[in-house]
Write a structure and sequence with these properties.
The chain is an alpha/beta fold. It has a single domain (about 1-190), classed as Pyruvate-ferredoxin oxidoreductase, PFOR, domain III (Pyruvate-ferredoxin Oxidoreductase, domain 3). It is about 40% helix and about 20% strand. It is built from 8 helices and 6 strands. The protein has helices at about 15-30, 75-80, 100-105, 115-120, 130-140, 145-155, 160-170, 180-190, and strands at about 1-10, 35-40, 45-55, 70, 90-95, 125-130. A 6-stranded mixed β-sheet has the order 2-3-1-4-5-6, sandwiched between helices. A hairpin with a 7-residue loop joins strand 2 (about 35-40) and strand 3 (about 45-55). The chain is globular, with a radius of gyration of 16 Å. The two termini are about 25 Å apart.
Length: about 200
């Protein structure tokens, strides 16, 4: 078994925490797991890319065109890293945009969500647009958007038990935020209809 998960977003969205939760849950289930992160000006809203590889893998970096899952916490970041997609990649695309400074200043344009989805679907038809940020706000904090998406991924076939993911949240997230993140996990899991 080999599963490649690419998590992309901007600084402050919790991409690195997302990877840590998935990796910790995988280790609890005795799966080989490798992770790698690249981020520039992440604290200032810069691009963040985190690779999580489970199973029979020896390198932490996902080869181009080899992602099984792409979690895009910010829509335009899915476009930035679309080279990792193939016709079988499943994309979970959060619909909430974070407008870059260049767009706010009027020197760049932010792509329309529909155009982003069309571009991604030209590579894979497995693109699911989700309102993870809205779900997170209902749970109590937009800062749990990343955990909402983990719940969605768990429901969609991530080969990790829900219990392991919950335990990983307890290990990774600061104690005062654990219960809210568990609620976010459940909300994301329950938001996906698999019938």
């Amino acid at each position: 078994m080999k599963i490649n998960i690419l998590i992309v977003g901007v600084g402050g969205q919790g991409a690195i925490t997302t990877a840590a939760v998935i990796a910790r849950a995988a280790m609890m289930e005795n799966l080989n797991v490798l992770t790698a992160e690249t981020h520039g000006m992440a604290q200032r809203g810069g691009s963040v890319e985190v690779h999580v590889r489970l199973g029979d893998v020896k390198s932490p970096l996902i080869p181009i065109g080899s992602a099984d899952y792409v979690i895009a916490l910010e829509p335009s970041e899915a476009l930035r890293y679309s080279a990792y997609l193939n016709e079988n990649t499943f994309v979970i695309l959060n619909d909430r945009a974070i407008i870059p400074h260049a767009v706010s200043l009027g020197i760049a344009e932010y792509p329309k969500l529909d155009d982003i989805v069309i571009a991604l679907r030209s590579i894979t038809d497995k693109v699911m647009v989700v309102n993870a940020s809205e779900i997170a706000e209902k749970v109590g904090s937009i800062r749990t958007t990343n955990v909402v998406v983990i719940g969605m991924l768990a429901k969609l076939g991530l080969p990790l038990s829900y219990e392991s993911i919950e335990k990983a949240i307890e290990d990774v997230v600061p104690e005062k935020f654990v219960e809210m993140n568990k609620k976010a996990l459940k909300a994301g899991y329950d938001a996906i209809r698999t019938e």
